[in-house]
Amino acid sequence: MDANADDDGTHSELEYPENRQNNVEEDYSEENTDETSISTESTFDLTLPATHSYLGHNLEELRGRTILDDGLYVNLPLLVKQSVMLFPGQTLPMTVFDAQTIDMIRTCIENDRTLGVVCLGYDKMVPIGTTAEIYECMYDPDQGFRLKAKGRQRFKILRVIIQGYDKISARVQVLPEITLGPPFLDERIASLDHIRIHPKNEEDFKKQEKVENLDAVVTPWPAWVYRQYDPLRLSLKIRQRLQFIESKGSSIPEDPSDLSFWVAQNLLLDDNERIVLLNYDCAISRLQREMKYLVEDNVFVCCNCDSYIGRQSHMFPMSKEGPQGTYCNPSGIIHETVTLYHAQGLALSDNPPSINYTWFPGRGFIS
Protein backbone atom coordinates (compact mmCIF):
# COMPACT_ATOMS: atom_id res chain seq x y z
CA MET A 1 0.00 0.00 0.00
CA ASP A 2 1.25 3.44 -0.84
CA ALA A 3 0.42 6.59 1.06
CA ASN A 4 0.60 10.18 -0.08
CA ALA A 5 2.22 12.25 2.67
CA ASP A 6 0.63 15.65 3.10
CA ASP A 7 -0.05 17.96 6.01
CA ASP A 8 -3.62 18.64 4.86
CA GLY A 9 -4.89 15.17 5.75
CA THR A 10 -4.34 11.49 5.26
CA HIS A 11 -4.28 10.50 1.60
CA SER A 12 -4.32 6.76 1.01
CA GLU A 13 -3.92 5.07 -2.33
CA LEU A 14 -5.79 1.77 -1.97
CA GLU A 15 -5.22 -0.85 -4.63
CA TYR A 16 -7.54 -3.50 -6.04
CA PRO A 17 -7.69 -6.42 -5.49
CA GLU A 18 -5.46 -6.07 -2.41
CA ASN A 19 -8.13 -3.83 -0.88
CA ARG A 20 -11.78 -4.25 -1.62
CA GLN A 21 -14.97 -2.53 -0.58
CA ASN A 22 -17.45 -4.20 1.71
CA ASN A 23 -20.81 -3.25 3.17
CA VAL A 24 -20.66 -3.57 6.95
CA GLU A 25 -23.37 -3.04 9.51
CA GLU A 26 -21.07 -2.07 12.37
CA ASP A 27 -20.93 1.59 13.25
CA TYR A 28 -17.41 2.89 12.70
CA SER A 29 -18.29 6.48 13.44
CA GLU A 30 -16.54 6.37 16.83
CA GLU A 31 -13.32 4.68 15.66
CA ASN A 32 -10.69 7.39 15.64
CA THR A 33 -12.59 9.58 13.18
CA ASP A 34 -12.61 12.89 14.97
CA GLU A 35 -15.16 15.20 13.42
CA THR A 36 -12.79 18.11 13.33
CA SER A 37 -13.27 20.86 10.84
CA ILE A 38 -11.15 20.36 7.74
CA SER A 39 -9.96 23.32 5.78
CA THR A 40 -11.45 23.42 2.30
CA GLU A 41 -8.74 25.74 1.06
CA SER A 42 -6.11 24.10 -1.12
CA THR A 43 -3.23 25.39 -3.19
CA PHE A 44 -2.81 22.13 -5.07
CA ASP A 45 -3.49 22.33 -8.81
CA LEU A 46 -6.05 19.58 -9.50
CA THR A 47 -5.34 19.68 -13.23
CA LEU A 48 -1.78 18.33 -12.77
CA PRO A 49 -2.53 14.67 -11.87
CA ALA A 50 -4.78 14.31 -14.93
CA THR A 51 -1.81 15.10 -17.20
CA HIS A 52 0.21 12.13 -15.85
CA SER A 53 3.33 14.25 -16.18
CA TYR A 54 5.40 11.61 -14.36
CA LEU A 55 5.48 9.75 -17.70
CA GLY A 56 7.56 12.61 -19.07
CA HIS A 57 7.00 15.83 -20.98
CA ASN A 58 8.37 14.59 -24.29
CA LEU A 59 5.53 12.29 -25.32
CA GLU A 60 4.48 12.60 -28.95
CA GLU A 61 0.90 13.71 -29.49
CA LEU A 62 -1.04 11.58 -31.99
CA ARG A 63 -3.70 13.47 -33.89
CA GLY A 64 -7.09 12.31 -35.09
CA ARG A 65 -9.76 10.18 -33.48
CA THR A 66 -11.17 6.76 -34.34
CA ILE A 67 -14.85 5.96 -33.76
CA LEU A 68 -15.99 2.44 -34.62
CA ASP A 69 -19.53 1.90 -35.89
CA ASP A 70 -22.01 0.40 -33.42
CA GLY A 71 -22.43 -3.32 -33.99
CA LEU A 72 -19.22 -3.56 -36.03
CA TYR A 73 -17.36 -6.88 -35.97
CA VAL A 74 -13.62 -6.32 -35.85
CA ASN A 75 -10.37 -7.96 -34.75
CA LEU A 76 -8.78 -6.06 -31.87
CA PRO A 77 -5.42 -6.57 -30.14
CA LEU A 78 -6.13 -7.09 -26.46
CA LEU A 79 -4.39 -5.66 -23.44
CA VAL A 80 -5.33 -7.92 -20.54
CA LYS A 81 -4.66 -6.38 -17.13
CA GLN A 82 -5.26 -7.75 -13.65
CA SER A 83 -8.19 -5.90 -12.02
CA VAL A 84 -8.03 -2.96 -14.46
CA MET A 85 -11.55 -2.07 -15.60
CA LEU A 86 -11.53 0.71 -18.19
CA PHE A 87 -14.66 2.79 -18.89
CA PRO A 88 -15.37 5.12 -21.81
CA GLY A 89 -13.90 8.55 -21.08
CA GLN A 90 -11.32 7.22 -18.62
CA THR A 91 -7.59 7.87 -19.08
CA LEU A 92 -5.23 4.89 -19.00
CA PRO A 93 -1.52 5.68 -18.45
CA MET A 94 0.97 2.90 -19.16
CA THR A 95 4.64 2.05 -19.12
CA VAL A 96 5.44 -1.11 -21.08
CA PHE A 97 8.70 -3.04 -21.12
CA ASP A 98 8.03 -6.49 -22.62
CA ALA A 99 8.78 -6.83 -26.34
CA GLN A 100 5.50 -8.58 -27.28
CA THR A 101 3.32 -5.79 -25.90
CA ILE A 102 5.56 -3.10 -27.40
CA ASP A 103 5.22 -4.73 -30.84
CA MET A 104 1.44 -4.82 -30.41
CA ILE A 105 1.32 -1.13 -29.44
CA ARG A 106 3.50 -0.12 -32.38
CA THR A 107 1.18 -2.00 -34.74
CA CYS A 108 -1.81 -0.21 -33.19
CA ILE A 109 -0.19 3.19 -33.66
CA GLU A 110 0.59 2.43 -37.31
CA ASN A 111 -3.09 1.59 -37.90
CA ASP A 112 -5.97 3.26 -36.04
CA ARG A 113 -4.26 3.58 -32.60
CA THR A 114 -7.05 1.47 -31.06
CA LEU A 115 -6.71 -1.58 -28.83
CA GLY A 116 -9.02 -3.43 -26.48
CA VAL A 117 -8.58 -3.32 -22.70
CA VAL A 118 -9.97 -6.30 -20.80
CA CYS A 119 -9.98 -7.02 -17.08
CA LEU A 120 -8.41 -10.27 -15.92
CA GLY A 121 -10.42 -11.54 -12.98
CA TYR A 122 -9.34 -14.02 -10.37
CA ASP A 123 -10.02 -17.06 -12.56
CA LYS A 124 -10.70 -15.90 -16.11
CA MET A 125 -10.75 -13.02 -18.57
CA VAL A 126 -13.89 -10.89 -18.50
CA PRO A 127 -15.78 -11.22 -21.84
CA ILE A 128 -16.49 -7.50 -22.10
CA GLY A 129 -14.10 -4.58 -22.39
CA THR A 130 -13.52 -1.06 -23.66
CA THR A 131 -11.60 0.17 -26.67
CA ALA A 132 -8.69 2.44 -25.81
CA GLU A 133 -7.33 5.01 -28.26
CA ILE A 134 -3.67 5.94 -27.82
CA TYR A 135 -3.25 9.72 -27.99
CA GLU A 136 0.28 10.24 -26.64
CA CYS A 137 3.31 7.96 -26.67
CA MET A 138 7.11 7.80 -26.57
CA TYR A 139 9.61 4.95 -26.67
CA ASP A 140 12.87 4.97 -24.74
CA PRO A 141 15.07 1.86 -24.40
CA ASP A 142 15.75 2.67 -20.75
CA GLN A 143 12.27 3.86 -19.72
CA GLY A 144 10.16 1.55 -21.87
CA PHE A 145 7.18 2.48 -24.01
CA ARG A 146 5.23 5.22 -22.25
CA LEU A 147 1.76 6.07 -23.46
CA LYS A 148 -1.60 7.56 -22.57
CA ALA A 149 -4.84 6.12 -23.91
CA LYS A 150 -8.47 7.15 -23.58
CA GLY A 151 -11.39 4.74 -23.16
CA ARG A 152 -13.83 5.07 -26.05
CA GLN A 153 -16.41 2.31 -26.70
CA ARG A 154 -17.61 -0.90 -25.08
CA PHE A 155 -17.19 -4.22 -26.87
CA LYS A 156 -18.08 -7.89 -26.39
CA ILE A 157 -15.53 -10.64 -27.03
CA LEU A 158 -16.78 -13.28 -29.46
CA ARG A 159 -13.61 -15.30 -29.96
CA VAL A 160 -10.12 -15.06 -28.46
CA ILE A 161 -7.14 -15.44 -30.80
CA ILE A 162 -3.82 -16.31 -29.13
CA GLN A 163 -0.95 -15.37 -31.44
CA GLY A 164 1.94 -16.20 -29.15
CA TYR A 165 3.21 -15.72 -25.64
CA ASP A 166 1.48 -12.73 -24.06
CA LYS A 167 0.13 -11.64 -27.45
CA ILE A 168 -3.64 -11.89 -27.63
CA SER A 169 -6.26 -10.53 -30.00
CA ALA A 170 -9.97 -11.19 -30.29
CA ARG A 171 -12.91 -11.04 -32.62
CA VAL A 172 -15.20 -8.52 -30.95
CA GLN A 173 -18.46 -6.72 -31.54
CA VAL A 174 -18.66 -3.02 -30.76
CA LEU A 175 -21.61 -2.50 -28.43
CA PRO A 176 -24.01 0.40 -28.99
CA GLU A 177 -24.83 2.98 -26.36
CA ILE A 178 -28.62 3.27 -26.38
CA THR A 179 -29.91 6.77 -25.67
CA LEU A 180 -33.52 7.15 -24.57
CA GLY A 181 -35.39 10.43 -24.51
CA PRO A 182 -37.81 11.71 -21.86
CA PRO A 183 -40.18 8.93 -20.73
CA PHE A 184 -43.28 10.88 -21.81
CA LEU A 185 -41.92 11.74 -25.26
CA ASP A 186 -44.19 9.40 -27.23
CA GLU A 187 -47.25 9.55 -24.96
CA ARG A 188 -47.23 13.25 -24.19
CA ILE A 189 -50.18 15.55 -24.72
CA ALA A 190 -49.05 17.68 -27.67
CA SER A 191 -51.19 20.66 -26.67
CA LEU A 192 -48.99 21.07 -23.57
CA ASP A 193 -45.74 21.38 -25.54
CA HIS A 194 -45.74 25.17 -25.32
CA ILE A 195 -45.37 25.06 -21.52
CA ARG A 196 -42.71 22.35 -21.37
CA ILE A 197 -39.21 23.30 -20.27
CA HIS A 198 -35.80 21.64 -20.35
CA PRO A 199 -35.14 21.12 -16.61
CA LYS A 200 -31.67 22.01 -15.33
CA ASN A 201 -32.24 22.18 -11.58
CA GLU A 202 -34.59 20.90 -8.91
CA GLU A 203 -36.91 23.90 -9.22
CA ASP A 204 -37.31 23.30 -12.96
CA PHE A 205 -38.15 19.63 -12.36
CA LYS A 206 -40.87 20.60 -9.90
CA LYS A 207 -42.43 22.85 -12.54
CA GLN A 208 -42.17 20.08 -15.12
CA GLU A 209 -43.88 17.60 -12.79
CA LYS A 210 -47.16 19.48 -13.16
CA VAL A 211 -47.08 18.90 -16.91
CA GLU A 212 -46.02 15.27 -16.46
CA ASN A 213 -48.95 14.61 -14.14
CA LEU A 214 -51.28 15.68 -16.95
CA ASP A 215 -49.38 13.54 -19.49
CA ALA A 216 -49.75 10.50 -17.24
CA VAL A 217 -53.55 10.70 -17.39
CA VAL A 218 -53.52 9.02 -20.82
CA THR A 219 -50.95 6.34 -19.82
CA PRO A 220 -51.35 3.05 -17.91
CA TRP A 221 -49.08 4.17 -15.06
CA PRO A 222 -48.88 7.16 -12.73
CA ALA A 223 -46.26 9.83 -13.42
CA TRP A 224 -43.92 8.79 -10.58
CA VAL A 225 -43.29 5.44 -12.30
CA TYR A 226 -42.04 7.15 -15.46
CA ARG A 227 -39.89 9.59 -13.50
CA GLN A 228 -37.74 6.68 -12.32
CA TYR A 229 -36.57 6.31 -15.93
CA ASP A 230 -35.91 9.97 -16.67
CA PRO A 231 -32.15 10.25 -17.41
CA LEU A 232 -32.04 13.98 -16.62
CA ARG A 233 -33.79 13.53 -13.28
CA LEU A 234 -31.50 10.62 -12.37
CA SER A 235 -28.47 12.71 -13.31
CA LEU A 236 -29.61 15.58 -11.09
CA LYS A 237 -30.10 13.28 -8.09
CA ILE A 238 -26.65 11.78 -8.50
CA ARG A 239 -24.99 15.17 -8.94
CA GLN A 240 -26.68 16.37 -5.75
CA ARG A 241 -25.19 13.43 -3.86
CA LEU A 242 -21.78 14.18 -5.34
CA GLN A 243 -21.74 17.87 -4.42
CA PHE A 244 -19.14 17.17 -1.72
CA ILE A 245 -16.78 16.10 -4.53
CA GLU A 246 -17.69 18.80 -7.03
CA SER A 247 -17.27 21.51 -4.39
CA LYS A 248 -13.63 20.43 -3.97
CA GLY A 249 -12.79 21.12 -7.62
CA SER A 250 -13.58 17.97 -9.61
CA SER A 251 -15.46 18.30 -12.89
CA ILE A 252 -18.54 16.06 -12.97
CA PRO A 253 -20.13 15.50 -16.41
CA GLU A 254 -23.67 16.70 -17.02
CA ASP A 255 -24.52 14.38 -19.92
CA PRO A 256 -26.30 11.27 -18.49
CA SER A 257 -24.18 8.80 -20.45
CA ASP A 258 -20.87 10.49 -19.59
CA LEU A 259 -21.98 10.84 -15.97
CA SER A 260 -22.86 7.14 -15.71
CA PHE A 261 -19.36 6.14 -16.84
CA TRP A 262 -17.73 8.78 -14.61
CA VAL A 263 -19.55 7.49 -11.53
CA ALA A 264 -18.66 3.89 -12.40
CA GLN A 265 -14.94 4.66 -12.46
CA ASN A 266 -14.94 6.93 -9.39
CA LEU A 267 -17.23 5.11 -6.97
CA LEU A 268 -15.96 2.65 -4.39
CA LEU A 269 -16.81 -0.55 -6.31
CA ASP A 270 -15.22 -3.96 -6.73
CA ASP A 271 -14.55 -5.61 -10.09
CA ASN A 272 -17.79 -7.62 -10.15
CA GLU A 273 -19.94 -4.52 -9.65
CA ARG A 274 -18.03 -2.64 -12.35
CA ILE A 275 -18.51 -5.52 -14.77
CA VAL A 276 -22.26 -5.30 -14.21
CA LEU A 277 -22.19 -1.55 -14.96
CA LEU A 278 -20.05 -2.05 -18.07
CA ASN A 279 -22.54 -4.62 -19.38
CA TYR A 280 -25.44 -2.14 -19.36
CA ASP A 281 -26.12 -0.62 -22.78
CA CYS A 282 -28.07 2.38 -21.49
CA ALA A 283 -27.19 5.22 -19.13
CA ILE A 284 -30.55 4.93 -17.35
CA SER A 285 -29.81 1.41 -16.05
CA ARG A 286 -26.31 2.42 -14.95
CA LEU A 287 -27.52 5.56 -13.17
CA GLN A 288 -30.27 3.65 -11.34
CA ARG A 289 -27.80 1.09 -10.03
CA GLU A 290 -25.20 3.73 -9.16
CA MET A 291 -27.77 5.64 -7.12
CA LYS A 292 -28.09 2.59 -4.86
CA TYR A 293 -24.32 2.48 -4.39
CA LEU A 294 -24.25 6.17 -3.46
CA VAL A 295 -26.95 5.71 -0.82
CA GLU A 296 -25.08 2.83 0.84
CA ASP A 297 -21.90 4.80 1.72
CA ASN A 298 -19.65 1.75 1.34
CA VAL A 299 -16.42 1.34 3.25
CA PHE A 300 -12.83 0.34 2.55
CA VAL A 301 -11.69 -2.80 4.35
CA CYS A 302 -8.61 -4.95 4.01
CA CYS A 303 -9.33 -8.14 2.05
CA ASN A 304 -6.97 -10.12 4.29
CA CYS A 305 -8.09 -9.13 7.79
CA ASP A 306 -11.29 -7.09 7.17
CA SER A 307 -9.82 -4.17 9.10
CA TYR A 308 -11.76 -0.96 8.59
CA ILE A 309 -9.87 1.74 6.66
CA GLY A 310 -12.33 4.45 5.63
CA ARG A 311 -15.70 5.36 4.15
CA GLN A 312 -16.80 6.35 0.69
CA SER A 313 -18.00 9.67 2.11
CA HIS A 314 -14.42 10.36 3.32
CA MET A 315 -13.12 10.56 -0.23
CA PHE A 316 -12.03 13.84 -1.76
CA PRO A 317 -10.49 14.59 -5.15
CA MET A 318 -6.81 15.18 -5.80
CA SER A 319 -7.54 15.37 -9.52
CA LYS A 320 -9.86 17.33 -11.78
CA GLU A 321 -11.06 14.01 -13.19
CA GLY A 322 -12.44 12.77 -9.86
CA PRO A 323 -11.58 11.24 -6.47
CA GLN A 324 -10.40 7.92 -7.88
CA GLY A 325 -7.64 7.80 -10.47
CA THR A 326 -5.61 5.30 -12.46
CA TYR A 327 -1.84 5.70 -12.32
CA CYS A 328 1.23 3.76 -13.40
CA ASN A 329 4.43 3.19 -11.41
CA PRO A 330 8.00 2.93 -12.81
CA SER A 331 7.66 -0.87 -13.09
CA GLY A 332 4.60 -0.58 -15.31
CA ILE A 333 2.11 -1.74 -12.67
CA ILE A 334 -1.21 0.11 -12.90
CA HIS A 335 -2.78 1.24 -9.63
CA GLU A 336 -6.21 2.64 -8.85
CA THR A 337 -5.91 5.23 -6.11
CA VAL A 338 -8.28 7.09 -3.86
CA THR A 339 -7.59 9.87 -1.36
CA LEU A 340 -9.38 10.04 1.99
CA TYR A 341 -9.85 12.69 4.67
CA HIS A 342 -9.87 10.03 7.39
CA ALA A 343 -8.09 6.68 7.32
CA GLN A 344 -7.08 4.19 9.97
CA GLY A 345 -5.35 0.86 10.18
CA LEU A 346 -2.57 2.01 7.86
CA ALA A 347 0.95 0.66 8.36
CA LEU A 348 3.57 3.04 6.99
CA SER A 349 7.27 2.34 6.77
CA ASP A 350 10.03 4.58 8.11
CA ASN A 351 11.29 5.31 4.60
CA PRO A 352 11.49 9.01 3.70
CA PRO A 353 8.93 10.35 1.19
CA SER A 354 9.92 9.85 -2.43
CA ILE A 355 9.01 12.12 -5.35
CA ASN A 356 10.24 9.68 -8.01
CA TYR A 357 7.39 9.03 -10.46
CA THR A 358 5.06 10.85 -8.09
CA TRP A 359 1.46 10.78 -9.27
CA PHE A 360 0.63 14.07 -7.56
CA PRO A 361 3.25 16.71 -8.49
CA GLY A 362 4.72 18.38 -5.42
CA ARG A 363 3.68 15.51 -3.13
CA GLY A 364 5.93 12.70 -1.92
CA PHE A 365 5.04 9.06 -1.32
CA ILE A 366 5.81 6.84 1.64
CA SER A 367 5.74 3.16 0.69
Automatic annotation (TrEMBL):
The portions of this protein that span the membrane are none
Renumbered residue ranges of the record's region Disordered = 1-43
Q: Where is the composition biased (Acidic residues)?
A: 24-34
Domain (Lon N-terminal): residue spans on this chain: 76-298
Per UniProt, the ranges with Basic and acidic residues bias are 8-18
CULT domain residues are 297-367
* Protein's UniProt name: Protein cereblon isoform X2
The root-end lineage is: Eukaryota, Metazoa, Ecdysozoa, Arthropoda, Hexapoda
Gene for this protein? LOC100747880
